[in-house]
């Protein structure tokens, strides 16, 4: 056996066995293996390159002067207001300046705003009113609320619902879009004095209220919210 004792032979045999096991498991290099994946330099496939990231939202853009409108740009407006009428032309002008504008969606939002404003005024909620009214209208509402509070008067109000809400006019004033609605609502409202005596309205009767309200939005602003800029009550 010379220099090899039993222990040396044992370790040699073990090394050979381990080598062949690794060779079978890992395989051999042939020169055609894929290189290691590098997440920073790996090229994207054509499909991946054309896909938009999931967290990116394409927003409608304002058309450039002279740029023709898409064929379906006014479909919703023509369904809402008869073509070639002043109302239709006004709504189209707003659509040209605010591609996201939809008359039906606007009316739905205006109805919600109407209820919020009516109830906020009755409750003296200045914070809510400030977010929904223009500066001029807000100042007028706050002055009326202050006068009521100075007399210790309170409005007891219950909103029943809106029977009808129609856009009666629409136009662009410079960069501002203005839309006027005629709103018919039902409301239970009564004003009580300091002693609790009813001095206006009726806490038991549902009254029909007719209002003409105008909402406006600066289409040049990133703020998507409309604000009440004018109010008028019909008899």
Automatic annotation (TrEMBL):
Residues 87-233 form the Tim44-like domain. It is found in: Membrane. GO terms for molecular function: protein-folding chaperone binding. The chain crosses the membrane at residues 6-26. GO terms for cellular component: membrane. InterPro entries: NTF2-like_dom_sf, Tim44-like, Tim44-like_dom, UCP031890_Tim44-rel. Residues 31-55 are annotated as: Disordered. Pfam families: Tim44. Keywords: Membrane, Transit peptide, Transmembrane, Transmembrane helix. Gene3D superfamilies: 3.10.450.240. Its main location: membrane. Belongs to the Tim44 family. This is Calcium-binding protein. It comes from Rhizobium loti (Mesorhizobium loti). The lineage of its organism: Bacteria, Pseudomonadati, Pseudomonadota, Alphaproteobacteria, Hyphomicrobiales.
